[in-house]
Amino acid sequence: MLLSRSYGAWLVLFLLISLAFIAPSMSQLDSPWVAKKRQMREKVRKMFYHAYENYMKHAFPHDELKPLTKGFTDSLSELGNLKLQHLPRNYNGSALTLIESLSSLVIMGNNTEFERAVTWLSENLTFNIDARINLFECNIRVLGGLISAHILATDSTNRLVQGCYKNQLLNLAEDLGRRFLPAFDTPTGLPYAWVNLKYGVMEDETPETSTSGCGSLILEMGALSRLTGDPRYESAALRALRKLWSMRSSLNLLGTTLDVTTGEWIEYSSGIGAGVDSFYEYLCKAHILFGKEDYWRMFHSAYLAVQKYFRHGPWYHEADMRTGKATYWQLTSLQAFWPGLQVLVGDIGAANSSHREFVYVWKKFGVIPERYLLDHQMLHPTEKYYPLRPELAESTFYLYQATKDPWYIQVGESIVNSLNLYTKVKGGFASVRDVTTMQLEDHQHSFFLAETCKYLYLLFDDSFLVDRNYIFTTEGHPLPILSSWHERLPEAYIPTNWTYAKNEQQTRLASAMSLQVCPAIALRSGYGVQQVESACHIPDSRADHRCFSDEECGIDSSTCRRRSCSMAGYCGLWIQ
């Protein structure tokens, strides 16, 4: 997560959260909450090791654990069948859960097991195989896991015995990254969703991919370029991202699926859930990690469009990218990541509002169903499952860091208790097949250890983040924010340097996002101290809302619509 303090105004928006990692918080000074957090931290630690040790005992070195039968599944058979050296010829595993667990082991202070895992992977993992992998999934899970673990293995705290690590994980990551590159060889620069690790793109490969699939590669591939000095990885991912952004509608909305050879949209309906979610996340986090203003400009426009066309009170429906008209009124479990992203841009009020609705749904069912139909107030008939997803825990962690409100500790406790009550079995933690009956499914996804347990642990114990600046990938892998990875900003960061042009009369009519500050930070202007309440909110020029022209009116905080000046001389939402 957070943040270099040497880059001036554009990073101020993260100040409150970074200070939370350095200064003593209210909850740290309140002994009952200290005791509660310590107790919950140990509960989460036991959860992680119950899942991890059962995987190591019954499924390693295959991909994922079957906790009910104490068997295994090679889930990466869809992603890659990543084979290991020195194992039987018919072996099809990639030790996915082990790769996904590496940073969690470090965060929980188990450097010994981390070292054993790194050594084993260094000696056994290979990507030189005839296997068709999903680019997006392999990128966020395998490439991201290897890069993050390499950085942790080489940091100044000497997590590994000195001299025993010689960049083996980075070498594996670079080898995997090279095998990704043929997927980007398309007329548009948008990558195929699938690529064979040995032979590249197959002759009859489908050209269909998702917005997330080709727009959520920049963190891992950008980090790989910075670590290796080879610009090809970041260039390929950035070219794809820019092409994708050029395909947006006049409303600054994107669809869900597209054709990588023609650059045409296939599915025009879109939202903040499956198929699109990490696209928004990576625009914002790429700006934090690499400092490019292009990423912020794209995210700023996209975020305001989401608030305008998808938001309905605390909920977010789907809409047609061409018209902005609502298409599907549904909640999906993946949407629960959104409040966490809103924390990073300073929209705390909106984040809290949406987060509370997800908590309500969690408490109603005991877990969050994969899909809930808001217009019918009923579960989706075929998507009643809960596969141990981390998104609600992730947003709870971010909101607690931003506010230090102990209510979020209580939310975390509720999540932990539900997971132990409904999903814990003798052989690990099982997914829920049907939230109405709590019937279980024989699958423990690797992201349960990579994300769910990690964010819950960090909620109760953030000592890993103290005096360190990290951003987490969409799979929960920490990447450090380094000055050497950043573009240099001008010495004087004045309005003429901004991406968004403002004339002198309108300079103070700015939102938290355009000024890149947290909403709780008082902004000083020639007119005194002003509180910015929402990331999209731009206050009216005058406190009494009187006006002579539309230029003196701001943007409404709840709808993100431009306010206008009425004939009577008052700002409001007069134009429908």
From TrEMBL:
Pfam families: Glyco_hydro_47. Its cofactor is Ca(2+). Residues 1-27 form the signal peptide. InterPro entries: 6hp_glycosidase-like_sf (IPR012341), EDEM1/2/3 (IPR044674), Glyco_hydro_47 (IPR001382), Seven-hairpin_glycosidases (IPR036026). Keywords: Calcium, Endoplasmic reticulum, Glycoprotein, Glycosidase, Hydrolase, Metal-binding, Signal. The active site is at 137 (proton donor), 277, 370 (proton donor), 391. One of its GO terms (biological process) is carbohydrate metabolic process. Its EC number is 3.2.1.-. GO terms for molecular function: calcium ion binding; mannosyl-oligosaccharide 1,2-alpha-mannosidase activity. It is found in: Endoplasmic reticulum. One of its GO terms (cellular component) is membrane. The keyword RNA-binding does not apply. Ca(2+) binds at residue 474. Belongs to the glycosyl hydrolase 47 family. This is alpha-1,2-Mannosidase. It comes from Gossypium stocksii.
